[in-house]
Structures are given as structure tokens and as C-alpha cells.
Design a protein that fits this description.
The structure holds 2 protein chains of 2 kinds. By secondary structure, chain A is an all-alpha fold. In chain A, about 60% of the residues lie in helices and about 0% in strands. In chain A, helix 2 packs across helix 3 (about 80-95). Chain B is globular. The chains are: A mainly alpha, B alpha+beta.
Chain lengths: ~190, ~675
């Protein structure tokens, strides 16, 4: 392959890619415009906000609670009798003017911390929250330092390979390049 | 029960005979290899076929017992009843514990037979150990059935009717979800067996990798399909408007999928650059053990969740098997370590090799975090006596950012060339996707004004752009050499490098799934409303008016439905009918059939939750972009299939005619 204009479209490439880019941006923007109406209703909602409908405030609280008899589902959406009863209690308490914190505490007192879908970050439970990021951090640190060391010790690529890497075709991956040279052979045999 | 007498008893006989053959296969294979007697190895292979045949007989006996509803068989009594339809009598096969074990063992024996037959000549040196390891795994499952949980166990009497399958399981999704996951778990045994055979036999070249490439993709693909069907089933049936709840049993299906994904990527480096050989071995062992762990969690009842329908006392057995195989595998790896460490060194931190390593890091961090989440309730109870629940908020906060990073890496990886990145390459490869990222970031930032969803959308768009760029580069390169049309060039490109472009399609599918997840997680509306007949309520763009309640009755179920007239944007739109189904015998466990209107923008999802004389109550969800998840799932599966599809090596294709004449003229010069 030479560097003439018939080389794998050095000029043809950008045009179609920029068209595709415009398409991607337009598609996502169109979707975003359609769903942004929902945002005002979901962003930073508080169950204590009296301007919200009661049922919505109830769901905001119930969704923090784990249905005690049907594990894996929250009180908000469980089919069970118990969950329905708990939803009723939350509604009554909201109607009576109780605040979110007090209602959640009421259920913790009755069922234990187990009722919370998001475990509190205190005592032994801190380990739950901190183990994964600490492990990831340590592993990443180890990987980066190892790679750095290896790269410094590793062999410099020989000049020929370096030149090939910087050639015009380096846009293509070796696999595609191999495939094209294979194709050359097939065509010009 | 004279006419039933035969087949179930034959099945039981076959079940008790199978471990004898499995044991024989193990001994004959190993002894045959040690003493260099090929005839023994051949005999071991035939014993493996015999185990396969025997397990098929056991399975057929169970199917037969189900079809004739022979309630003297305990498992049949548990999982079907007279009023249960034929279709769900079939699917009851894997509805419980014993049947799942049988399904696992039978499909393992079938896959083992295929793998051994197709690799018999080319990998003959590995075969004795492949047979021995696969038969050890099969032996474990067969012994579990024989000793603990026999699917064909007879009772002393014949009850007039059975108990029936859990109504949640009586759904089309359940016909596919469990068998796909179980075969997915099971298929990881094949690459594991080949890897261990390479270690044990000392033939440590890359041939075991080539032999198992498609088996790994099979396992990964089946797990993917199982997860997708599970999500679809949850969305349609569980009635909470969600497709993924970070439920323990969903998690243990995701964990081996993540590990297998890591393995699929690291194995590419091993194959192409002869690097990371130890690491690849670690990953294949890990993927297998996590598959067993998944089966163990689902089937042992250690952790309760919506899914653990089948529970029994097999926990300690699984635990021992898991422990023993892990220790032995790593011992063998350690023993062979001097022979597989590579001399090949990394040349640059900015190279595709290191890109794969960071991908592995993230995938394994996700595996680790998810395992911590699944096991922590047990640890907490053990150490502090405090029972806790680890629900979706934990995973959203811990796994969410990691998934986002992984999405970014998925875009960066393919842009990095092997060995090292040069400055020109950086500019050529990065400018276009980077531009897409920035433009989406700015445009969405203006429209949505929220940090995380905008960043997540832009990152996914970036990754999507890199995939498109890879395809465009390849197609343009081909076109400039040949006279092919765009479509032809695209087709040929994918045909010639299936693993690569199939993999890119998988990435594209994941981008679509990410779109759907971001849209539906951040921009959903959920309301619980109670309406009297004629009354209306507004949710988002929709106004719902409750019209009436009705009931349908059939031989095995009663359905209550509510009719709702829905206006969209103030104009009459359509009528939606959410239902609730009461299966005969399970009147206490009704199942929701939500009314669902789906589009590329958003789903309107209505669940009927209760009713009385004065009115009815509903959950109403507006879930944006959920359809993208299913589209992405489809693209992912197609990509996986393309990568999996048998490839004629370019050299082989020119050297000799393909077995099946290809329809296109690309091969016609041969």
C-alpha cells in the first residue's frame, strides 16, 4: 500500500465519521429532551416535602425498607400482605404529620436494622462499604506500579518495528492489516 | 401403576449405574496416560459416553414421569398438579432442586461428549485429563443425586394430586431462564477441564486455549442469555417495574459472567502475545469455581431470596466440593508455575495489553464487591449478631461507578494498539470519539443539568463511537482495495475477523444496555394511586381514568383485570388492561401481569395491586428507555454468536475447499 490518494481512505474517513457523530449526538439529545420532563419530578425528592402527593411520599419511604417475608423486594412494590400493611402504616403516619426519619426509626425499632435496604455506615458495617473500594485501590496501585516497572525494564522495540508502527497504515489494527494483505494476495495472485 | 412401573425404575437403575462408569472413566484415563496405554484412554472415553447415555435415560425417565403425572415420584408430586398445563409440566423439570442437579449433570455429560469427540485427535495428549476432570465434576453431581436429592425418589403411596409449580415460575420466561443459566454455569467446566489438563499433562502451549475458545464463548453467551431472560422475566412478572434488583441470586449469576468476561479478554493477550499465561489460568479456575459457587448459592438455600425456590441440605456438599477443587486447582497451578511464567515483557503502559489488564482489574473488582455484598449479611450475623440486608443502594453506589469506569475502558481499550501507543496514533484514533464525548457532554449538560447521568450518557456515547470508528476504518480500508459496496465490505470484514468484530458488536450491545439502564434509573416516575370508577390521575404525560373491573375464569386460573383509559399529552390515546392472575391451588400467591406500553422513549407500566367495591389501586411506572436494554441484549447476543461462529482460518480457506460451499464469491477462487 502506498501513500497515494487510493490508500485506505485517508480523506474518505472523516466525512462519514463526522456524519455518524452528528447522528449519535442528535439521537441522544432527542432522547434527553423527551425524558428531561421526568427529571424535575425525580431529582432530590424528599418524603418530607408536603407539596408532593401522599402516595409518592409513601413510596419514597417504603422503597428504603426491605419486605421482611419476601426477601429481595422492597416494601414499596411487594405483593405480600405484610408489605401492604406496612405501606398502610406509612401512609397513616404521614397523614398524622410524622417526618421521614421518625417513620423509618419506627420500623427499625420493630424489625431491626435488617429492615433497611441500605445498611448504615457504622461499626462493623463500615467494612461492607470500605472493603471493595480499598481492595480496588490497592489492586490498581499494584497494577500501575508493576506495569510501570515492567515497561521501564522491558525491551525497546527494534527500529524496524518502530518505523512500521508509525507508518500510514497504523490506523489499522494488525489484524485488519493482516487481513488486507491476505486479500492482496488473493486478488493479485 | 403397572404401566408406569418400568421407565422410572429403569431411570433409577441408570442413576445408580452412572457413578460406577464415571469412576471407571477417571481411573482408566489417568492410568492409561501414566502407563502409556492408549487403549485404556479409549476405554475411558467410551465410559464417558456411557455416563452420558445413562444420564439421558434418567432424564427421559423424569420427563416421562412428569408427562404421565406419576405422583408416586416425590419430585413430580412437588412440582406439578393435575390442573397444570402441559408446557409448565415440561418446565417443572428444572423447577426444583433435584431436577436442576439432573439437568446440570446431563448437560455436562452431553457437552463433555461433544468436546471430547471434536478434540479427540487434535488434543489427544490432553484427553486423559480432560476426561478425568469432567467425569470428576459429573461424579460429584451424580453422587449428590444418589445420596441426597434423587429426582426419581419414589414414595410409599400415590397421592391423588400434586402440589404444583410455584406460580411465579409458570411464565414463558421461566421456560428459558433457568436452563440457560444452568447450562451457562455448567459450560465453564469445559475450558476449566482443558486448562487443568494442560497443567496436569505439562503440555502448556496455547493449544488448549484454541481448543476451548468457542466453549468459553458458549458459556459466556449462555450466561448472558440467562441474565437477559431473567431481567425480562422480572420486568414482566414481578410487578415492581424493575429488571434487575441486585438480588443475591441474580448476583451469583452475574459474578461468573464477569469473571468469564475477564477471562475472554485476558485469553486474547495470551493467544496473541504469549503473555499473562499464569493470570489467564487463574481466571479460568476462578470462572469455574464461581460458576459452582453460583449453583451452590442458588441450590443450597444458604441465602434466601425470591429465586431460591429449591432448597435442601446439599449446602455442605457443595461447600466441600468448592473448597477441594479450588485448593487442588491452585496447587496444580503453583506446581507448574516455573514452566508457564513468560519472558515476554510489556513495552508500554499505554498499550492494548495494559488496557486488557485494567479491564480485568475492574471486572474482578466488580466480582469482589458483589461477593462482599452477597456474603456480608452472613459475616455480620456471625461476627456481631446483627442481621442486615444488603440491597440495591449498596450496589448502585459501589458497583455503579465501577461499571461506569469499565464502560470508559471498553471504549479506550480498542483505541490502544498492541505494544505501544505513538503520538500520531493518539491523535488519529482519539480525536473523533473524544469529540463525540465532549459534544454529548455539553449538549446533555445543557438539557439535563445533572452530573452522573450526563457523564454516564457521554461515556457510553464515547464507547459507542469507538466501535463505530473501528467498523468504519475496517470497511473503508477494504473498500479502497476492492470494488466492494459498503455492505459487502462490512460483511467480509466481519467474516474475516469474527472474534474481533463480534466482540465490538457485544460492546455496542452493552452501550445500548447502558443507555437503557441510565435512562430508566435516573428518570423514572413511580406512583401508587387508588381510583374510584370514572376517577382520573396524572403521571408524567399520562392521564389514567379507571373504567371498570372484570374477571376471567378458565380451567386452571382466574384472572382479575382492570380497564384504564389513558390520555397522553391531553389527548385520548389508548386503553390499557393490567391483570392479576390466580392459579388454581395458589390462590394465596397471585401473580401480576402488568399492562405495558413500550417505545424507544419510555415504557408506561401499570400494575393492578388491589381492589374493592369502591375502587382499585395501581402502581404506575414511567420507565424511560427500557426498550434499549432489550435491543442491546439482542445486539450483544448477535455479536457473541458472530464471535462464536466457526471460523475457517484464512490460510486453511485458501489451502482447501471449505466443507460447506460458501454462498459468496469470496471463496470461489479456491
Amino acid at each position: 500500500m502506498s501513500r497515494s490518494s487510493s490508500v485506505p481512505g485517508t480523506w474518505e474517513r472523516p466525512r462519514i465519521l463526522w456524519l455518524a457523530a452528528a447522528g449519535i449526538v442528535l439521537l441522544i439529545a432527542a432522547l434527553a429532551l423527551r425524558i428531561q420532563g421526568n427529571m424535575e419530578q425525580t431529582a432530590n425528592l424528599s418524603a418530607d416535602d408536603p407539596s408532593l402527593p401522599l402516595d409518592q411520599r409513601m413510596i419514597l419511604i417504603a422503597d428504603q425498607l426491605q419486605c421482611p417475608i419476601c426477601e429481595g423486594q422492597s416494601v414499596a412494590y411487594s405483593n405480600s400482605q405484610l408489605a401492604a400493611e406496612m405501606r398502610r402504616i406509612i401512609l397513616d403516619k404521614l397523614e398524622a404529620g410524622e417526618r421521614e426519619e421518625a417513620i423509618v426509626q419506627y420500623f427499625i425499632d420493630r424489625y431491626g436494622v435488617e429492615i433497611l435496604r441500605e445498611p448504615p455506615r457504622q461499626g462493623f458495617l463500615r467494612w461492607l462499604w470500605w472493603t471493595p473500594p480499598i481492595a480496588l485501590g490497592l489492586a490498581a496501585l499494584w497494577l500501575v506500579t508493576t506495569l510501570w516497572r515492567m515497561a521501564r525494564q522491558g525491551p525497546r522495540p527494534e527500529p524496524a518495528a518502530q518505523a512500521a508502527l508509525q507508518g500510514e497504515e497504523d490506523i489499522l489494527d494488525p489484524e485488519v492489516r493482516d487481513l488486507l494483505s491476505q486479500y492482496d494476495k488473493d486478488l493479485f495472485r | 401403576m403397572n404401566e408406569l412401573f418400568d421407565l422410572v425404575d429403569v431411570g433409577n437403575g441408570a442413576l445408580y449405574l452412572a457413578p460406577v462408569f464415571a469412576l471407571y472413566a477417571i481411573v482408566a484415563a489417568v492410568v492409561g496416560d501414566r502407563l502409556e496405554r492408549p487403549a485404556w484412554v479409549l476405554s475411558a472415553r467410551n465410559a464417558l459416553y456411557a455416563v452420558c447415555g445413562l444420564l439421558i435415560v434418567v432424564s427421559l425417565a423424569l420427563v416421562y414421569a412428569f408427562l404421565v403425572k406419576d405422583y408416586s415420584v416425590f419430585y413430580v408430586f412437588q412440582n406439578t398438579r393435575n390442573s397444570q398445563s402441559l408446557f409448565y409440566t415440561w418446565t417443572a423439570f428444572w423447577g426444583g432442586n433435584a431436577g436442576s442437579l439432573l439437568f446440570w449433570a446431563t448437560s455436562l455429560a452431553i457437552f463433555a461428549s461433544i468436546a471430547v469427540t471434536t478434540n479427540w485427535r487434535s488434543q489427544f495428549r490432553l484427553m486423559p485429563y480432560v476426561i478425568a476432570i469432567l467425569m470428576t465434576i459429573a461424579l460429584f453431581f451424580i453422587l449428590l443425586m444418589v445420596l441426597v436429592s434423587n429426582p426419581l425418589r419414589r414414595m410409599d403411596f400415590v397421592p391423588p394430586d400434586g402440589r404444583g409449580l410455584n406460580p411465579l415460575l409458570q411464565d414463558p420466561g421461566m421456560a428459558f431462564h433457568p436452563p440457560l443459566l444452568l447450562t451457562g454455569y455448567m459450560s465453564m467446566s469445559i475450558p476449566y477441564a482443558f486448562a487443568m489438563a494442560a497443567l496436569l499433562s505439562g503440555r502448556l502451549d496455547a493449544s488448549w486455549i484454541r481448543a476451548t475458545r468457542r466453549w468459553t464463548l458458549t458459556a459466556w453467551g449462555l450466561l448472558s442469555l440467562g441474565l437477559l431472560f431473567g431481567a425480562w422475566w422480572a420486568y414482566r412478572v414481578l410487578g415492581w417495574g424493575g429488571y434487575w434488583g441486585w438480588d443475591p441470586v441474580e448476583n451469583v449469576a452475574l459474578i461468573p459472567w464477569l469473571a468469564a468476561s475477564a477471562y475472554i479478554h485476558s485469553v486474547i493477550v495470551t493467544e496473541k502475545r504469549q503473555m499473562l499465561r499464569v493470570w489467564t489460568m487463574v481466571l479460568v479456575i476462578l470462572s469455574f469455581e464461581l460458576s459452582i459457587f453460583g449453583t451452590f448459592i442458588v441450590r443450597s438455600g444458604v441465602i434466601t431470596s425470591v429465586h431460591s425456590f429449591a432448597q435442601s441440605a446439599i449446602g455442605p456438599w457443595f461447600f466441600s466440593f468448592l473448597g477441594a477443587t479450588t485448593i487442588l486447582s491452585f496447587f496444580v497451578l503453583w506446581y507448574r508455575l516455573p514452566r508457564i511464567t513468560t519472558r515476554r515483557r510489556l513495552e508500554s503502559v499505554l498499550s492494548r495489553e495494559s488496557g486488557f489488564l485494567f479491564n480485568n482489574l475492574l471486572l474482578l473488582a466488580l466480582v469482589f464487591a458483589t461477593i462482599v455484598g452477597v456474603l456480608f449479611p452472613m459475616l455480620s450475623e456471625l461476627f456481631t449478631g446483627v442481621q442486615i440486608t444488603v440491597g440495591p443502594p449498596f450496589y448502585n453506589k459501589v458497583n455503579g461507578p465501577m461499571l461506569l469506569t469499565l464502560m470508559a475502558l471498553m471504549g479506550l481499550g480498542p483505541l490502544l494498539p498492541w505494544r505501544r501507543l505513538t503520538r500520531q496514533q493518539l491523535w488519529r484514533r482519539f480525536r473523533w470519539p473524544a469529540a463525540v464525548f465532549l459534544v454529548v457532554l455539553v449538549v446533555l449538560g445543557v438539557i439535563l443539568r445533572q452530573f452522573w447521568p450526563v457523564l454516564a450518557f457521554a461515556t457510553s456515547a464515547f464507547t459507542g463511537a469507538t466501535v463505530i470508528q473501528e467498523f468504519v476504518f475496517g470497511v473503508v480500508a477494504r473498500r479502497s482495495l476492492t470494488q466492494e459496496s459498503w455492505l459487502q465490505a462490512l460483511f467480509r470484514l466481519m467474516e474475516r475477523a469474527r472474534g474481533r468484530y463480534g466482540g465490538y458488536l457485544v460492546h455496542l450491545g452493552l452501550v445500548f444496555i447502558a443507555f437503557g439502564v441510565i435512562g430508566s434509573q435516573f428518570y423514572d416516575l413511580e406512583r401508587g394511586i387508588t381510583l374510584a370508577p370514572g376517577e382520573s390521575a396524572t403521571v408524567g404525560r399520562y392521564t389514567l381514568t379507571y373504567l371498570s373491573l372484570g374477571t376471567e375464569q378458565s380451567s386452571h386460573e382466574r384472572t382479575v383485570y382492570a380497564r384504564l383509559a389513558v390520555d397522553r399529552d391531553g389527548r385520548p390515546w389508548q386503553e390499557l388492561v393490567p391483570r392479576r392472575r390466580f392459579l388454581t391451588g395458589f390462590e394465596e400467591q397471585p401473580v401480576s401481569l402488568p399492562a405495558l406500553h413500550t417505545s424507544l422513549v419510555e415504557d408506561l407500566y401499570i400494575v393492578l395491586t388491589g381492589w374493592d367495591d369502591s375502587g382499585a389501586s395501581f402502581f404506575v411506572f414511567v420507565k424511560p428507555m427500557v426498550l434499549w436494554i432489550w435491543i442491546g441484549g439482542f445486539v450483544l447476543v448477535v455479536g457473541g454468536l458472530i464471535a462464536w461462529w466457526p471460523e475457517r482460518h484464512p490460510v486453511a480457506a485458501t489451502a482447501r475447499a471449505p466443507a460447506r460451499p460458501a454462498p459468496q464469491e469470496g471463496h470461489s477462487h479456491v
